[in-house]
Design goal:
binds adenosine-5'-diphosphate; binds zinc ion; Rossmann fold; Arc Repressor Mutant, subunit A; globular; 4 domains; alpha/beta; 7-stranded parallel β-sheet; 6-stranded parallel β-sheet
């Protein structure tokens, strides 16, 4: 990591300016980790790569510098300042490259509500809207311009680049920069051409932002964008506000019902592995009375964008989606992300589950999986010709996470090559003691291992489980396995418990799944050793968290101490919804849940009080303050 931390008078003054801007425009009182350093790199025109987890606050890193001036001119931060009339040089704009239309719109809407002159150029604009954006650039009235990579380096993009070169680009920020790398989880070929911006905007610094942690992706970003001596800032990958849980798939509907009971009226995403499953689950959720919609590539564009908008506008609570389509459904107050099947790598899991709790408030990530998920992935990757060494490794790592019996925060953080200092996180099934140790683990493990040996290491999980529970199925009888000494050896255990133990043994490396097309269980060296009485092993039973756990760390509503608070919260949510509808923006563009919650706690009486509330900038206080103050003033506690 290369950061210069020596405070110089200039840096100090700049810090003051940035802090003022943060408070005045966004209503934030402090930098998040590495934001300060990232902003300084931009203001010093030094290329940079900033890796922060989802929700880490990457956008602010380029938004704030775009509205304050560089070191030489620090101190002037009047957004309405007009260079032409002042007879001074142009201020120029920050060029932001962003891959998705919905993300662009979201950020620009948010900036405008905060009073920042931002715009985007993409195919959704009407001709007169487009002309207005161009005019604002030409007349130096635009501080941040968002464009897609196609628009800036694709066919016919030359005139835009010429316009921008003339307008003066202060710096280029590349959001979701991992899209440049084939090693990332979302490669986009258009991103590859962004390096050419160097020629069009010589001397302009480039700043890449991503949440993807791997070294390989980082290296690709640096070389593809031709970054020079970049300042590389890598944040901590832990997301302390997320509670991680892993469940083995049993009765999926029941398991979902338990989860949803903890998140009444809250937003969530349920990921499925197939379109069929998406449709079926969305239907089922609707009949159960939930406001849920499906979202997958098989839907007409028009339907898909309507469902996406309904979710963003809080007209529905739950999106059931295939993983291929997650990026556009970002909403900051997602309180739970369920995977109804294992993803293909920890990278994917981190990315997808990371869509929960972007506002920093407690949220829950639950993986519901079965061993078969990994077999299906393998088959799919093989048929696509994607079954490479790296795909195999990643899938095995995912399996290890799922079957793992240790702190989930720790395993994810360590997986991404960082150290985890806390002894326990207080926010995962392991640390919350939701897994119950099996008293005679070694004996149980030996019974399972010996059964695998007895069936000659040529059968899969389902069969081995049948033999152990003493089910004389057709296959069991045909193979003569009902005569084995291990037949019915664990008949007091449930099928799902045994499957769970098998996953754990595989995860611990005592057994392996091998062979195709039907993978079979085999003993590894350490598995053989344990069978001989050499070595140790611990197995756990999974205990589902109680459905109506009162003080679950994962439910926002439950963190309110009295119900009256959550009633006021609902009242404020309605005010927010009304304002959002009137402006045609999603509710969280008005205020995040975090802000409403802070209002509930502080009960501001005046506009001045409001300025102290988290996330209330000057413009928002002026525009929306009265509506919220009125609601708080007239609120009566229900009896
Ligand atoms: P990312 O792009 O890294 O996923 P965002 O830029 O969307 O994250 O920021 C996540 C949330 O954190 C947003 O709600 C944002 O307003 C908030 N946020 C960012 N910086 C700060 C800060 N310094 N103080 C408080 N909240 C912040
Ligand atoms: Zn933990």
């Amino acid at each position: 990591m290369t950061t210069s931390n020596t405070p110089t008078p200039d840096a100090n003054r700049l810090d003051g300016t940035l802090r003022d801007t943060l408070h005045r425009v966004w209503g934030f009182s402090a930098f998040r980790p590495l934001q300060r350093e990232a902003m300084h790199a931009i203001l010093a025109s030094r290329d940079s790569v900033v890796v922060l987890p989802t929700g880490g606050g990457k956008s602010l890193c380029f938004q704030a510098p775009a509205i304050v001036d560089g070191p030489a001119k620090a101190g002037r931060h009047d957004d309405t300042w007009n260079p032409a009339s002042a007879g001074l040089a142009r201020r120029g704009l920050a060029l932001v490259i962003s891959p998705l239309i919905s993300l662009m719109k979201d950020q620009v809407d948010g900036l405008r509500v905060d009073g920042v002159a931002a715009s985007y150029l993409n195919s959704t604009l009407l001709p007169h809207e487009r002309d207005e954006v161009i005019a604002s650039v030409r007349e130096d009235r635009c501080r941040l311009l968002y464009v897609s990579p196609e628009r800036i380096v694709g066919e016919g993009s030359q005139s835009l680049r010429r316009l921008l070169a003339h307008a003066g680009v202060r710096f280029v920020a590349i959001d979701e920069a991992h899209c440049i790398s084939q090693w990332g989880h979302d490669f986009r070929p258009e991103y590859r051409q962004l390096g050419r911006l160097r020629e069009d905007f010589p001397g302009v610094s480039m700043h890449a932002f991503t949440a993807t942690a791997t070294e390989r992706v980082r290296r690709d970003i640096v070389s593809e964008l031709r970054l020079q001596d970049p300042c590389v800032l890598v944040g901590s990958f832990d997301r302390p506000n997320l509670a991680y849980r892993v469940l083995r798939r049993g009765n999926l509907h029941r398991q979902l019902q338990d989860i949803l009971a903890r998140h009444e009226k809250e937003a969530g995403i349920v990921y499925c592995s197939s379109r069929r499953e998406v449709e079926a689950l969305a239907d089922w959720l609707q009949t159960e009375g939930h406001r849920a919609v499906p979202y997958h590539a098989g839907l007409a564009d028009e339907v898909r964008s309507r469902h996406q908008e309904m979710f963003l506008d809080e007209r529905v609570d739950i999106v059931v989606a295939t993983v291929a389509f997650g990026m556009g459904i970002d909403r900051s107050n997602v309180r739970f992300v369920v995977h109804a099947g294992a993803p293909r790598s920890p990278e994917h899991y981190q990315q997808e589950s990371g869509r929960a709790g972007r506002d920093g408030l407690p949220a829950e990530c639950i993986l519901i999986y079965s061993g078969g998920d990994f077999v299906r992935w393998r088959q799919m990757l093989e048929s696509n010709g994607e079954w490479s060494e790296s795909a195999r490794t990643l899938l095995r790592d995912m399996e290890r996470y799922a079957a793992g019996t240790r702190c989930r925060h720790r395993s994810l953080v360590e997986y991404f090559g960082q150290t985890y200092d806390a002894a326990e996180c207080g926010a995962c099934d392991w640390c919350l003691k939701e897994l119950d140790p099996v008293a005679d683990s070694v004996t149980v493990a030996q019974k399972i291992l010996s059964c695998v040996a007895r069936v000659k290491q040529t059968w899969g999980t389902a069969h081995v489980t049948d033999v152990l529970t003493g089910k004389a199925t057709e296959k069991v009888v045909a193979a003569g396995h009902q005569d084995l000494s291990t037949f019915g050896l664990l008949k007091e255990e449930s099928t799902s418990a045994i499957r769970g133990y098998i996953e754990q043994l595989v995860g611990d490396g005592l057994m392996a799944r091998e062979g195709e097309p039907y993978p079979v269980l085999r003993l590894t060296g350490s598995g053989m050793a344990l069978l001989r009485g050499d070595g140790d092993c611990r197995l756990y039973r999974e205990v589902a968290p109680p459905a109506s756990r009162k003080r679950s760390r994962s439910s926002l509503r439950d963190t309110f101490t009295v119900t009256a608070d959550s009633d006021l919260f609902d009242v404020l949510r309605d005010v927010r919804l009304r304002l959002a509808r009137a402006r045609g923006v999603p509710p969280y563009v008005i205020f995040h849940d975090t802000t409403l919650r802070d209002m509930v706690e502080r009960r501001p009486k005046t506009i001045d009080d409001l300025h102290e509330v988290y996330g209330v900038g000057a413009k928002k206080a002026a525009d929306f303050g009265d509506a919220f103050l009125d609601a708080i003033r007239t609120y009566r506690r229900p009896d």
